[in-house]
Amino acid sequence: MKKISCFILAACLFVSALPVLASTNQDLQDKTVIIYSSNIRGNINVLPQLAALRNYYEARGADVIMVDTGNYLQGTIYAAYDSGRTVIELMDKAGFDVVTAGSRDFAFGTGVVGVETHGIIFADDSFGRLLEEASFAAVSSNVVAGDHAPFLQNTVITTARGRTVGFFGLTDTATVNRVLESSIEGLTFTNPTAAAVAQTAALAGNDIVIGISNAGLRQPIPGAILIDVPQHLGLIVGVITIDATGQTSHRFADLADVSQDAAVQAAVEYAQELAREAFPTPAQSQVTLEGTFANNRSGETNTGNLWTDALLWFANYGGIANFFDEDDIDAGNTGIMVAPENVVAIWNGGNLRDFLHPGDVTMRDIQRILPFPNRVAVMYLTGAQLLEMLEAATQAIPATAYNLSATASFPHVAGLEFTLDTWVPFDAGEAYGNHWFRANSLGRVTITSVNGNPFDPNATYAIITSNAVFNGMDSNYISLERCDEFSTITSALVVDVVWMFIMQELGGVIDARYVAPQGRITIE
Protein backbone atom coordinates (compact mmCIF):
# COMPACT_ATOMS: atom_id res chain seq x y z
CA MET A 1 0.00 0.00 0.00
CA LYS A 2 1.38 3.41 -0.92
CA LYS A 3 2.52 5.52 2.02
CA ILE A 4 1.14 9.05 2.22
CA SER A 5 3.41 11.95 1.43
CA CYS A 6 4.20 14.89 3.68
CA PHE A 7 1.16 17.09 4.27
CA ILE A 8 0.66 19.87 6.80
CA LEU A 9 -2.70 21.32 7.72
CA ALA A 10 -1.60 24.21 9.90
CA ALA A 11 -1.18 26.48 6.88
CA CYS A 12 -4.53 25.44 5.47
CA LEU A 13 -6.57 26.69 8.37
CA PHE A 14 -7.17 30.06 6.80
CA VAL A 15 -9.17 28.85 3.79
CA SER A 16 -12.93 29.11 3.74
CA ALA A 17 -14.84 26.36 5.50
CA LEU A 18 -16.77 23.91 3.34
CA PRO A 19 -20.00 22.22 4.48
CA VAL A 20 -19.03 18.59 4.99
CA LEU A 21 -22.54 17.27 4.71
CA ALA A 22 -23.16 18.60 1.21
CA SER A 23 -24.33 15.82 -1.07
CA THR A 24 -21.60 14.14 -3.13
CA ASN A 25 -21.30 10.95 -5.17
CA GLN A 26 -17.97 10.01 -3.59
CA ASP A 27 -17.63 6.30 -2.78
CA LEU A 28 -16.13 5.99 0.72
CA GLN A 29 -15.98 2.19 0.88
CA ASP A 30 -12.18 2.03 0.56
CA LYS A 31 -11.38 5.27 2.35
CA THR A 32 -10.18 6.26 5.80
CA VAL A 33 -11.70 9.41 7.25
CA ILE A 34 -10.02 11.37 10.04
CA ILE A 35 -12.38 13.77 11.80
CA TYR A 36 -10.53 16.27 13.97
CA SER A 37 -11.62 18.95 16.40
CA SER A 38 -9.59 21.68 18.01
CA ASN A 39 -10.15 24.09 20.90
CA ILE A 40 -13.48 22.75 22.15
CA ARG A 41 -12.74 24.56 25.44
CA GLY A 42 -15.51 22.96 27.45
CA ASN A 43 -18.19 23.64 24.83
CA ILE A 44 -20.00 20.34 25.25
CA ASN A 45 -22.81 21.48 22.94
CA VAL A 46 -20.65 20.57 19.92
CA LEU A 47 -20.14 16.96 21.00
CA PRO A 48 -23.52 15.62 19.79
CA GLN A 49 -22.74 17.12 16.38
CA LEU A 50 -19.27 15.59 16.28
CA ALA A 51 -20.81 12.22 17.12
CA ALA A 52 -23.34 12.71 14.31
CA LEU A 53 -20.53 13.62 11.92
CA ARG A 54 -18.81 10.35 12.75
CA ASN A 55 -22.07 8.48 12.21
CA TYR A 56 -22.48 10.12 8.81
CA TYR A 57 -19.11 9.02 7.46
CA GLU A 58 -19.43 5.55 8.91
CA ALA A 59 -22.80 5.21 7.18
CA ARG A 60 -21.05 6.11 3.93
CA GLY A 61 -18.79 3.10 4.41
CA ALA A 62 -15.59 4.82 5.54
CA ASP A 63 -13.28 3.70 8.31
CA VAL A 64 -13.57 6.66 10.69
CA ILE A 65 -11.13 7.82 13.36
CA MET A 66 -11.96 10.88 15.45
CA VAL A 67 -9.22 12.92 17.14
CA ASP A 68 -8.76 16.18 19.03
CA THR A 69 -5.71 18.44 18.85
CA GLY A 70 -6.08 19.71 22.42
CA ASN A 71 -7.56 22.52 24.51
CA TYR A 72 -10.86 20.77 25.18
CA LEU A 73 -11.03 21.77 28.86
CA GLN A 74 -11.37 25.14 30.66
CA GLY A 75 -13.77 27.69 29.32
CA THR A 76 -17.27 26.75 30.43
CA ILE A 77 -18.98 25.80 33.65
CA TYR A 78 -19.26 22.23 32.35
CA ALA A 79 -15.50 21.86 32.63
CA ALA A 80 -15.08 24.00 35.74
CA TYR A 81 -17.60 22.44 38.06
CA ASP A 82 -15.88 19.05 38.22
CA SER A 83 -12.39 19.88 36.95
CA GLY A 84 -12.95 18.45 33.49
CA ARG A 85 -14.46 15.05 34.29
CA THR A 86 -17.73 15.82 32.52
CA VAL A 87 -16.05 17.02 29.33
CA ILE A 88 -13.76 14.01 29.10
CA GLU A 89 -16.60 11.56 29.76
CA LEU A 90 -18.76 13.20 27.08
CA MET A 91 -15.89 13.20 24.57
CA ASP A 92 -15.55 9.49 25.25
CA LYS A 93 -19.25 8.98 24.63
CA ALA A 94 -19.06 11.01 21.42
CA GLY A 95 -16.57 8.53 20.00
CA PHE A 96 -13.12 10.09 20.15
CA ASP A 97 -10.22 7.73 19.53
CA VAL A 98 -7.12 9.86 20.18
CA VAL A 99 -6.47 13.24 21.82
CA THR A 100 -3.45 15.29 22.75
CA ALA A 101 -3.04 17.80 25.59
CA GLY A 102 -3.23 21.56 25.12
CA SER A 103 -2.38 24.41 27.45
CA ARG A 104 -5.94 24.78 28.71
CA ASP A 105 -6.10 21.10 29.56
CA PHE A 106 -3.53 21.62 32.32
CA ALA A 107 -5.53 24.44 33.88
CA PHE A 108 -7.01 22.21 36.56
CA GLY A 109 -3.66 20.80 37.59
CA THR A 110 -4.03 17.80 39.82
CA GLY A 111 -7.55 18.80 40.80
CA VAL A 112 -6.24 19.85 44.23
CA VAL A 113 -6.34 23.59 44.77
CA GLY A 114 -3.97 24.67 47.49
CA VAL A 115 -2.79 22.35 50.23
CA GLU A 116 -4.40 21.14 53.40
CA THR A 117 -2.76 23.78 55.58
CA HIS A 118 -4.38 26.46 53.44
CA GLY A 119 -7.82 25.09 54.11
CA ILE A 120 -9.06 24.56 50.55
CA ILE A 121 -9.01 21.07 49.05
CA PHE A 122 -10.83 19.85 45.97
CA ALA A 123 -10.48 16.09 45.81
CA ASP A 124 -11.22 15.79 42.12
CA ASP A 125 -9.16 13.30 40.16
CA SER A 126 -6.16 14.50 38.24
CA PHE A 127 -6.14 15.30 34.54
CA GLY A 128 -3.99 12.25 33.92
CA ARG A 129 -6.28 9.98 35.91
CA LEU A 130 -9.34 11.18 34.00
CA LEU A 131 -7.59 10.46 30.72
CA GLU A 132 -6.62 7.00 31.92
CA GLU A 133 -10.27 6.26 32.67
CA ALA A 134 -11.36 7.25 29.14
CA SER A 135 -11.32 4.69 26.36
CA PHE A 136 -9.55 7.03 23.94
CA ALA A 137 -5.76 7.33 23.84
CA ALA A 138 -3.94 10.46 25.07
CA VAL A 139 -0.68 11.17 23.21
CA SER A 140 1.93 13.88 23.61
CA SER A 141 5.50 13.08 22.71
CA ASN A 142 7.11 16.36 23.77
CA VAL A 143 5.91 16.37 27.39
CA VAL A 144 8.22 14.52 29.75
CA ALA A 145 8.48 14.08 33.50
CA GLY A 146 12.06 13.19 34.29
CA ASP A 147 12.54 9.64 33.03
CA HIS A 148 8.82 9.12 32.62
CA ALA A 149 6.32 9.96 29.91
CA PRO A 150 3.05 11.26 31.38
CA PHE A 151 1.27 10.59 28.08
CA LEU A 152 1.61 7.92 25.42
CA GLN A 153 4.41 8.70 23.01
CA ASN A 154 2.27 7.36 20.19
CA THR A 155 -0.55 4.96 19.47
CA VAL A 156 -1.57 2.84 16.48
CA ILE A 157 -5.13 2.17 15.35
CA THR A 158 -5.88 -0.62 12.90
CA THR A 159 -8.99 0.09 10.84
CA ALA A 160 -11.62 -2.49 9.91
CA ARG A 161 -9.94 -2.90 6.51
CA GLY A 162 -6.57 -3.55 8.09
CA ARG A 163 -4.99 -0.16 7.48
CA THR A 164 -2.64 0.89 10.31
CA VAL A 165 -2.72 4.54 11.36
CA GLY A 166 -0.07 5.77 13.79
CA PHE A 167 -0.71 8.89 15.87
CA PHE A 168 1.61 11.11 17.88
CA GLY A 169 0.77 14.31 19.76
CA LEU A 170 2.49 17.63 20.36
CA THR A 171 1.78 20.18 23.08
CA ASP A 172 2.52 23.89 22.87
CA THR A 173 5.71 24.71 24.76
CA ALA A 174 4.15 28.08 25.71
CA THR A 175 2.01 26.11 28.18
CA VAL A 176 4.59 27.02 30.82
CA ASN A 177 3.49 30.65 30.50
CA ARG A 178 -0.24 29.97 30.36
CA VAL A 179 -1.06 27.88 33.38
CA LEU A 180 -0.28 27.83 37.05
CA GLU A 181 3.27 26.60 37.62
CA SER A 182 2.22 23.96 40.14
CA SER A 183 -0.19 22.50 37.59
CA ILE A 184 2.77 21.41 35.48
CA GLU A 185 5.28 20.88 38.25
CA GLY A 186 7.86 18.30 37.22
CA LEU A 187 6.93 18.47 33.53
CA THR A 188 9.26 19.57 30.76
CA PHE A 189 8.01 20.66 27.33
CA THR A 190 10.64 19.69 24.76
CA ASN A 191 11.17 20.84 21.18
CA PRO A 192 8.02 19.79 19.29
CA THR A 193 9.70 19.59 15.89
CA ALA A 194 12.34 17.20 17.18
CA ALA A 195 9.66 15.12 18.89
CA ALA A 196 7.59 15.02 15.68
CA VAL A 197 10.55 13.88 13.59
CA ALA A 198 11.39 11.15 16.12
CA GLN A 199 7.82 9.89 16.32
CA THR A 200 7.38 9.93 12.56
CA ALA A 201 10.42 7.70 12.30
CA ALA A 202 9.14 5.43 15.07
CA LEU A 203 5.77 5.04 13.30
CA ALA A 204 7.18 4.72 9.78
CA GLY A 205 6.12 1.09 9.46
CA ASN A 206 2.44 2.06 9.44
CA ASP A 207 0.33 2.89 6.42
CA ILE A 208 -0.45 6.39 7.68
CA VAL A 209 1.28 8.60 10.25
CA ILE A 210 -0.64 11.54 11.73
CA GLY A 211 0.47 14.18 14.21
CA ILE A 212 -2.17 16.01 16.25
CA SER A 213 -0.76 19.24 17.62
CA ASN A 214 -1.41 22.64 19.15
CA ALA A 215 2.29 23.54 19.21
CA GLY A 216 2.09 26.03 16.34
CA LEU A 217 4.56 24.34 14.00
CA ARG A 218 4.99 26.20 10.75
CA GLN A 219 6.82 23.58 8.75
CA PRO A 220 5.76 20.16 7.46
CA ILE A 221 7.06 16.92 8.94
CA PRO A 222 8.18 14.61 6.11
CA GLY A 223 6.31 11.33 6.24
CA ALA A 224 3.38 12.55 8.34
CA ILE A 225 0.10 14.36 8.08
CA LEU A 226 0.40 17.12 10.68
CA ILE A 227 -2.85 18.58 12.02
CA ASP A 228 -1.65 21.61 13.95
CA VAL A 229 -4.16 24.09 15.38
CA PRO A 230 -2.88 26.63 17.94
CA GLN A 231 -5.26 27.67 20.70
CA HIS A 232 -5.77 31.23 19.43
CA LEU A 233 -7.61 29.95 16.32
CA GLY A 234 -10.61 28.80 18.36
CA LEU A 235 -12.97 25.95 17.54
CA ILE A 236 -12.15 24.22 14.26
CA VAL A 237 -13.55 20.95 12.94
CA GLY A 238 -12.09 19.32 9.86
CA VAL A 239 -12.29 16.12 7.83
CA ILE A 240 -9.38 14.40 6.07
CA THR A 241 -10.20 11.68 3.59
CA ILE A 242 -7.46 9.23 2.59
CA ASP A 243 -7.94 6.75 -0.25
CA ALA A 244 -6.27 3.38 -0.80
CA THR A 245 -3.39 4.95 -2.73
CA GLY A 246 -2.60 7.42 0.04
CA GLN A 247 -4.09 10.45 -1.71
CA THR A 248 -5.64 12.91 0.73
CA SER A 249 -8.28 15.59 0.67
CA HIS A 250 -9.18 18.03 3.41
CA ARG A 251 -12.22 20.15 4.16
CA PHE A 252 -13.61 22.01 7.12
CA ALA A 253 -16.93 21.11 8.71
CA ASP A 254 -19.58 23.73 9.25
CA LEU A 255 -21.38 22.33 12.29
CA ALA A 256 -24.44 24.40 11.40
CA ASP A 257 -25.03 21.77 8.71
CA VAL A 258 -24.68 18.83 11.11
CA SER A 259 -27.48 17.24 13.11
CA GLN A 260 -27.10 15.85 16.63
CA ASP A 261 -26.57 12.33 17.88
CA ALA A 262 -29.55 11.67 20.16
CA ALA A 263 -27.72 9.60 22.79
CA VAL A 264 -24.87 12.07 23.16
CA GLN A 265 -27.32 14.98 23.22
CA ALA A 266 -29.23 13.35 26.08
CA ALA A 267 -25.98 12.92 28.01
CA VAL A 268 -25.05 16.55 27.37
CA GLU A 269 -28.41 17.81 28.60
CA TYR A 270 -28.08 15.75 31.77
CA ALA A 271 -24.58 17.14 32.39
CA GLN A 272 -25.86 20.68 31.86
CA GLU A 273 -28.59 20.13 34.42
CA LEU A 274 -26.08 18.92 37.01
CA ALA A 275 -23.82 21.90 36.38
CA ARG A 276 -26.68 24.35 36.72
CA GLU A 277 -27.60 22.78 40.05
CA ALA A 278 -24.01 23.08 41.27
CA PHE A 279 -23.51 26.65 39.99
CA PRO A 280 -26.87 28.22 39.16
CA THR A 281 -25.44 31.68 38.49
CA PRO A 282 -22.02 31.54 36.85
CA ALA A 283 -20.27 34.72 35.83
CA GLN A 284 -18.62 35.30 32.47
CA SER A 285 -15.19 36.44 31.45
CA GLN A 286 -14.53 38.06 28.10
CA VAL A 287 -10.79 38.21 28.71
CA THR A 288 -7.89 36.09 29.91
CA LEU A 289 -6.59 37.12 33.31
CA GLU A 290 -2.84 36.69 33.76
CA GLY A 291 -1.79 33.70 35.85
CA THR A 292 1.96 33.22 35.63
CA PHE A 293 4.06 33.76 38.70
CA ALA A 294 6.66 35.60 36.63
CA ASN A 295 4.27 38.29 35.37
CA ASN A 296 2.14 38.72 38.49
CA ARG A 297 5.30 39.15 40.56
CA SER A 298 7.15 41.59 38.35
CA GLY A 299 4.66 44.16 37.06
CA GLU A 300 1.08 45.30 36.82
CA THR A 301 -1.35 42.71 35.43
CA ASN A 302 -5.05 42.64 34.70
CA THR A 303 -5.49 40.04 37.45
CA GLY A 304 -3.92 42.40 39.96
CA ASN A 305 -6.20 45.18 38.70
CA LEU A 306 -9.33 43.07 39.20
CA TRP A 307 -8.24 41.88 42.64
CA THR A 308 -7.42 45.32 44.00
CA ASP A 309 -10.49 46.90 42.37
CA ALA A 310 -12.60 44.38 44.27
CA LEU A 311 -10.97 45.25 47.58
CA LEU A 312 -11.32 49.00 47.01
CA TRP A 313 -14.96 48.60 45.99
CA PHE A 314 -15.62 46.49 49.07
CA ALA A 315 -14.24 49.19 51.33
CA ASN A 316 -16.09 52.07 49.70
CA TYR A 317 -19.36 50.52 48.52
CA GLY A 318 -19.51 46.80 49.32
CA GLY A 319 -20.42 46.87 52.98
CA ILE A 320 -17.10 46.16 54.66
CA ALA A 321 -18.47 47.43 57.99
CA ASN A 322 -20.80 44.43 58.13
CA PHE A 323 -17.73 42.22 58.53
CA PHE A 324 -16.10 44.02 61.46
CA ASP A 325 -15.84 41.96 64.65
CA GLU A 326 -17.98 42.75 67.67
CA ASP A 327 -14.89 43.83 69.60
CA ASP A 328 -14.13 46.43 66.92
CA ILE A 329 -17.67 47.73 66.94
CA ASP A 330 -17.73 47.91 70.75
CA ALA A 331 -14.52 49.93 70.57
CA GLY A 332 -16.05 52.38 68.09
CA ASN A 333 -14.39 50.93 64.99
CA THR A 334 -17.45 50.62 62.81
CA GLY A 335 -16.07 51.25 59.33
CA ILE A 336 -13.37 52.96 57.30
CA MET A 337 -12.11 55.90 59.33
CA VAL A 338 -10.83 58.12 56.49
CA ALA A 339 -12.51 59.73 53.51
CA PRO A 340 -12.87 57.57 50.33
CA GLU A 341 -10.21 59.62 48.54
CA ASN A 342 -7.67 58.32 51.09
CA VAL A 343 -8.59 54.64 50.69
CA VAL A 344 -6.32 52.43 48.56
CA ALA A 345 -5.97 48.69 47.98
CA ILE A 346 -2.72 46.71 47.81
CA TRP A 347 -2.34 43.03 46.94
CA ASN A 348 0.90 41.06 46.73
CA GLY A 349 1.62 39.28 43.45
CA GLY A 350 2.65 36.09 45.23
CA ASN A 351 -1.03 35.57 46.11
CA LEU A 352 -2.21 35.49 42.50
CA ARG A 353 -1.83 31.84 41.57
CA ASP A 354 -3.66 30.96 38.36
CA PHE A 355 -5.16 32.06 35.06
CA LEU A 356 -8.79 32.82 34.40
CA HIS A 357 -9.78 32.12 30.82
CA PRO A 358 -12.69 33.46 28.73
CA GLY A 359 -15.99 31.71 29.27
CA ASP A 360 -18.01 30.72 32.31
CA VAL A 361 -16.55 31.66 35.69
CA THR A 362 -17.45 30.09 39.02
CA MET A 363 -16.31 30.59 42.58
CA ARG A 364 -14.01 27.64 42.06
CA ASP A 365 -12.11 29.61 39.41
CA ILE A 366 -11.65 32.46 41.88
CA GLN A 367 -10.39 29.98 44.46
CA ARG A 368 -7.86 28.70 41.96
CA ILE A 369 -6.41 32.19 41.66
CA LEU A 370 -6.31 32.54 45.44
CA PRO A 371 -6.14 29.08 47.03
CA PHE A 372 -5.61 30.48 50.53
CA PRO A 373 -8.34 31.52 53.01
CA ASN A 374 -7.13 35.13 53.19
CA ARG A 375 -9.42 37.63 54.84
CA VAL A 376 -9.80 41.32 54.08
CA ALA A 377 -7.84 43.58 56.40
CA VAL A 378 -7.77 47.34 56.94
CA MET A 379 -4.68 49.11 58.20
CA TYR A 380 -3.89 52.77 58.58
CA LEU A 381 -0.52 54.15 57.50
CA THR A 382 0.82 57.61 56.98
CA GLY A 383 1.71 58.59 53.45
CA ALA A 384 5.38 58.25 54.32
CA GLN A 385 4.81 54.71 55.59
CA LEU A 386 2.81 53.84 52.48
CA LEU A 387 5.67 55.01 50.29
CA GLU A 388 8.16 52.92 52.26
CA MET A 389 5.85 49.92 51.98
CA LEU A 390 5.93 50.18 48.18
CA GLU A 391 9.70 50.77 48.17
CA ALA A 392 10.27 47.57 50.15
CA ALA A 393 7.72 45.56 48.20
CA THR A 394 9.42 46.32 44.88
CA GLN A 395 12.99 45.69 46.06
CA ALA A 396 13.38 42.54 43.88
CA ILE A 397 12.48 44.33 40.65
CA PRO A 398 13.91 43.80 38.10
CA ALA A 399 13.63 40.09 38.77
CA THR A 400 16.65 37.85 38.29
CA ALA A 401 17.36 34.17 38.80
CA TYR A 402 18.74 35.05 42.23
CA ASN A 403 15.84 37.02 43.70
CA LEU A 404 12.71 35.23 42.41
CA SER A 405 11.44 34.39 45.89
CA ALA A 406 11.59 38.06 46.85
CA THR A 407 9.34 39.06 43.95
CA ALA A 408 6.35 37.53 45.78
CA SER A 409 5.85 40.87 47.53
CA PHE A 410 5.30 42.86 44.32
CA PRO A 411 2.39 45.25 45.07
CA HIS A 412 -0.65 45.46 42.81
CA VAL A 413 -2.68 48.55 43.57
CA ALA A 414 -6.02 50.31 43.17
CA GLY A 415 -6.71 53.90 44.10
CA LEU A 416 -3.14 54.99 43.52
CA GLU A 417 -0.53 55.19 40.80
CA PHE A 418 3.20 54.90 41.26
CA THR A 419 6.43 54.83 39.28
CA LEU A 420 9.33 52.48 40.02
CA ASP A 421 12.76 53.62 38.84
CA THR A 422 14.79 50.41 38.57
CA TRP A 423 17.92 52.38 37.65
CA VAL A 424 18.09 53.48 41.27
CA PRO A 425 19.45 50.59 43.36
CA PHE A 426 17.45 49.46 46.37
CA ASP A 427 19.16 50.67 49.54
CA ALA A 428 19.02 47.46 51.56
CA GLY A 429 19.15 47.76 55.31
CA GLU A 430 18.54 45.13 57.97
CA ALA A 431 17.38 41.72 56.73
CA TYR A 432 13.67 41.01 57.08
CA GLY A 433 12.69 37.36 56.85
CA ASN A 434 14.45 35.01 54.46
CA HIS A 435 14.27 37.03 51.24
CA TRP A 436 13.81 40.73 52.02
CA PHE A 437 15.50 43.74 53.54
CA ARG A 438 14.24 46.89 55.16
CA ALA A 439 14.67 50.06 53.13
CA ASN A 440 17.53 52.18 54.46
CA SER A 441 16.38 55.09 52.34
CA LEU A 442 13.74 55.83 49.74
CA GLY A 443 14.34 56.78 46.13
CA ARG A 444 13.04 54.15 43.73
CA VAL A 445 9.28 54.64 44.13
CA THR A 446 7.29 57.80 43.45
CA ILE A 447 3.56 57.86 44.20
CA THR A 448 2.15 60.04 41.43
CA SER A 449 -1.47 60.22 42.61
CA VAL A 450 -3.96 58.82 45.12
CA ASN A 451 -7.48 58.54 43.74
CA GLY A 452 -6.66 61.37 41.36
CA ASN A 453 -5.31 63.63 44.09
CA PRO A 454 -1.72 64.59 44.95
CA PHE A 455 0.08 62.23 47.30
CA ASP A 456 0.53 63.60 50.82
CA PRO A 457 3.27 61.95 52.94
CA ASN A 458 1.68 63.40 56.07
CA ALA A 459 -1.87 62.22 55.41
CA THR A 460 -3.40 59.05 56.88
CA TYR A 461 -4.39 56.39 54.34
CA ALA A 462 -6.52 53.29 54.79
CA ILE A 463 -4.84 50.30 53.09
CA ILE A 464 -7.24 47.50 52.13
CA THR A 465 -5.29 44.27 51.86
CA SER A 466 -5.11 40.70 53.18
CA ASN A 467 -4.63 39.45 56.71
CA ALA A 468 -1.26 38.04 55.54
CA VAL A 469 0.08 41.45 54.49
CA PHE A 470 -1.49 42.97 57.62
CA ASN A 471 0.59 40.53 59.69
CA GLY A 472 3.84 41.48 57.95
CA MET A 473 4.13 38.72 55.33
CA ASP A 474 6.82 39.01 52.63
CA SER A 475 8.52 42.41 52.65
CA ASN A 476 5.78 44.17 54.60
CA TYR A 477 7.51 45.10 57.84
CA ILE A 478 5.80 48.49 57.64
CA SER A 479 2.49 46.73 58.31
CA LEU A 480 3.69 46.03 61.83
CA GLU A 481 4.22 49.76 62.37
CA ARG A 482 0.64 50.67 61.48
CA CYS A 483 -1.74 52.67 63.60
CA ASP A 484 -3.47 49.89 65.54
CA GLU A 485 -6.33 51.86 67.03
CA PHE A 486 -8.64 51.21 64.09
CA SER A 487 -6.65 48.74 61.97
CA THR A 488 -8.37 45.36 61.86
CA ILE A 489 -8.80 42.04 60.13
CA THR A 490 -12.41 41.54 59.05
CA SER A 491 -14.31 38.27 58.77
CA ALA A 492 -14.74 38.67 55.00
CA LEU A 493 -12.92 36.12 52.83
CA VAL A 494 -11.13 37.77 49.92
CA VAL A 495 -12.43 35.22 47.38
CA ASP A 496 -15.98 36.05 48.48
CA VAL A 497 -15.30 39.75 48.06
CA VAL A 498 -13.89 39.29 44.56
CA TRP A 499 -16.93 37.22 43.64
CA MET A 500 -19.27 39.87 45.06
CA PHE A 501 -17.47 42.54 43.03
CA ILE A 502 -17.81 40.55 39.81
CA MET A 503 -21.48 39.78 40.33
CA GLN A 504 -22.65 43.07 41.86
CA GLU A 505 -20.39 45.76 40.43
CA LEU A 506 -19.43 44.21 37.08
CA GLY A 507 -22.85 42.70 36.46
CA GLY A 508 -21.42 39.19 36.29
CA VAL A 509 -19.12 39.96 33.35
CA ILE A 510 -15.36 40.53 33.44
CA ASP A 511 -15.30 42.65 30.33
CA ALA A 512 -12.89 44.55 28.09
CA ARG A 513 -11.86 46.98 30.82
CA TYR A 514 -9.70 44.10 32.10
CA VAL A 515 -8.28 43.02 28.77
CA ALA A 516 -4.90 44.54 29.71
CA PRO A 517 -3.21 46.31 32.64
CA GLN A 518 -4.58 49.81 33.19
CA GLY A 519 -1.40 51.83 33.65
CA ARG A 520 -1.37 52.15 37.41
CA ILE A 521 2.26 51.12 37.74
CA THR A 522 5.10 52.47 35.60
CA ILE A 523 8.42 50.62 35.71
CA GLU A 524 11.35 52.46 34.23
Supply database-style keywords.
six-stranded mixed beta sheet, five-stranded mixed beta sheet, 13 helices, 5'-nucleotidase,  domain 2, 524 residues, 2 domains, Purple Acid Phosphatase, chain A, domain 2, alpha/beta
The overall pLDDT, averaged over residues, is 87
> How many structural domains?
2
From the alpha carbons, calculate the radius of gyration and give it in angstroms: 27 Å
Strand order of the largest sheet: 5-4-3-2-12-13
Q: What overall form do the CA principal axes indicate?
A: elongated
Instruction: State which percent range the strand residues make up.
Output: 15-25%
Number of DSSP E strands: 26
Q: For the record, what CATH class of the largest domain applies?
A: Alpha Beta
Structural class: alpha/beta
CATH topology of the largest domain: Purple Acid Phosphatase, chain A, domain 2
- Provide the CATH architecture of the largest domain: 4-Layer Sandwich
With helices defined by DSSP (H or I, 4 residues minimum), what is the helix count? 13
**The named CATH superfamily of the largest domain:** Metallo-dependent phosphatases
Helix content: 10-25%
Summarize the main sheet.
6 strands, mixed
Low-pLDDT segments, ≥5 res: 1-8, 10-20, 110-124
What is the CA–CA distance across the termini?
Answer: 64 Å
